[in-house]
Input
Amino acid sequence: MSEGPPHFEKLQRCPVCSGTGFSSYRKRTFDISTLSEDNIKITDSDYGKIWDLDLCETCTHVFANPIPSPAFIQSLYAKTEDPDYEEESLGRGKNFQRILNALEKIHPEKGRLLDVGAATGILMHLAREKGWVTEGVEPSSWAVEVAKKKYDLTLMEGNLETVTLKSNTYTAVTLVDFIEHVSHPNEALSKIRETLKPGGTVCLVTPDIQSLAARAMGKGWWHFRPGHLAYFTKKSLLTLLERSGFQVIKWRRYAWTFSAHYLLSRMSLFKFLVKNPRMAFFWKNIPIKLALRDSYEVYARKENSA
Ligand SMILES: [Zn+2]
Output
């Protein structure tokens, strides 16, 4: 458990468009006093836990309100350990390869790439193999250590809000499943814009709350989890990027690749298939590309005019 009770901030304006008209979207579904670092792990399979959520009438953004303080959330992430994430490096590597291929088309010259929320460094490792000079930011001490041991990568340990980044430095910044964890996304994107070179690209992957999967799965949608403080729609994501000085250049739905093991172990009906360790090993080596189409993958350029 984290030290002390979490602090909350009641937002009077939408954190994306600054609009003041919003209504309650859904009520909190868990007891905050039971929240631990395990609940915010990337691979946590206890779906359906949400904060009190509001819906912005102007840009359709859905966000936690009141919002837990960044310091509280960060104290949880610092302690997070997630061996399941690293076990899925095969599938995650395939996801990241697609992103790197897209970035390479935009920037054949490559350069410096910053991965924010770098976890154990899988994306950075693959980018380095393709010729990028890579840097990463990651709050979990455990993940920073794994990145060092496994890939000989030195990550900046901390959060985007607190690390110092040089201006006009990076050709590309990747935010894969990151922005939905942030309490003040406009400030985060402004900081990314500042650290990008003019003409540089941010790649952003985030769940789409208006997707078919989200609507079909309702309250049990697997992106409903305490780590997520915000849920974007196409409209709110475009608003965020435009307000932060970015021009969208590529937009598509994200296809996840998981191992069969990861998927089966998350479906109660099939859990028995992965209980035996030898069978688990078998399933872990079968990658499945899952066309859930419930996340967006967006590439946006830093506009030259301020
Ligand atoms: Zn809004």
